[in-house]
Amino acid sequence: MSKKWEERQVSLGGAIITGAVTLIIGLFVGINWNNISSTFLPYLGVKTTTANDWSALDEVYSTLVQNYDGEVSKEEIIEGAKKGIAAAVGDVYTAYMTPKEAKEYEASLHGDVGAGIGIEMALRDGYVRVLRTLPDNPAGKAGIKAGDIIYKIDDEEVYAEGSDVIASKLRGAAGTTVKLTVVRDGEEKSFELTRETINNVSAYATYDGSTAIITVTRFDSNTGTLVQKIVADEFPKHNVKKVILDLRNNGGGYVSAAKDLLSLWVDGDVVLVQKTNGITHDTTYANRGQAKLADIPTIVLVNGSTASASEIVAGALKDYKKATILGETTFGKGVVQTLFDLSKGSLLKVTTARWYTPNGSSINGEGITPDIEVELTYDDTNMGRDPQLDAAKKLEL
């Protein structure tokens, strides 16, 4: 038996009102679609783009092309504009990278630096300075010293550039030469250097009796597992009773590697909290069942170039009272960058969050203050002295 359709009466006035309301809502949504879509569509997992008026930039470009006494490369102008957009936010860690720069940056995260001159450098006192020269590498052999300000590369002034840019200019094919000019005690000194392949492991261990000294130079994708293997394979042979974790001059790297390293001391607890606009969006926990060093007396060595992922490690170990922090106040990079792949192999590195230690402390711009302060000067480094390591070896825990 078929169901009979029942006829419904519709008020003409109600239909007119409903239609009018629908029309008004439609007009409002249409006019304000850009604002509405950018606000609500991300919650539905839909990516949005923003329509912008770039006529002011086009005005600059047109005026430049018409009046500049020389050739103007459109491609170079566009690349420069991309860099300018990223730089305009005023965040030193947010940057656009050309395809060439992106390859070099991603290679450096894995320690694949190719050939270079063998120096560690970082921003100190407003300039990129040499922190130390690596053993048996061109810079040390030529007489470059810790504390030298990097002034020119191949006679091009680079003292106002960041360490990433300077590093890319110093790298090159093995056997090629580079001229490096530094400033030392107010005087320029130039060196002709031949690049060599750099052996740049991310972590290694040495031993002083039953004390293990683990040096971590950066956090690449396998640093945590590398140290875990060292602990499992080597520590029993040396009957390790004390650990010195050296994070000096470690500029950071992958958060996942920092988590893996921390898992040797922290068993499954929070090691990092990330917040965007003050709202927690990610909490990182240590791995479970790997804390072989949880009860081993530990000292962490830090200095002004201990930054980012290395500060995550130092901060968590300090909060959980798993280690004594010794040295100098760390750099204070308490922000997280996300890498976005762009067209043609270019890359955008964007600060997307701030991170906090397990106790909720933010170290951005302040750094981590050591429990025991011990200074290491450039003269100490150049003379082969290490008062921080000496103090750590003598410290009874």
Describe this structure in words.
By secondary structure, the chain is of the alpha+beta class. Helix content is 32%, strand content 26%. The protein contains twelve helices and 19 strands. It has helices spanning 12-31, 33-40, 55-67, 74-87, 99-109, 138-142, 163-170, 223-238, 255-262, 309-319, 378-382, 387-394; strands spanning 95-97, 115-116, 119-124, 127-133, 149-153, 156-157, 177-184, 187-194, 196-197, 203-208, 211-216, 242-246, 270-276, 279-285, 298-302, 324-327, 335-341, 347-356, 372-373. The chain has a six-stranded mixed beta sheet, with helices on both faces. Strands 1, 13, 14, 17 and 18 form a five-stranded antiparallel beta sheet that branches. Strands 6-5-7-8 form a four-stranded antiparallel beta sheet. Helix 8 packs parallel to helix 9 (255-262) and helix 9 (255-262) packs parallel to helix 10. The protein is globular and about 75 Å long. The N and C termini lie far apart (90 Å).
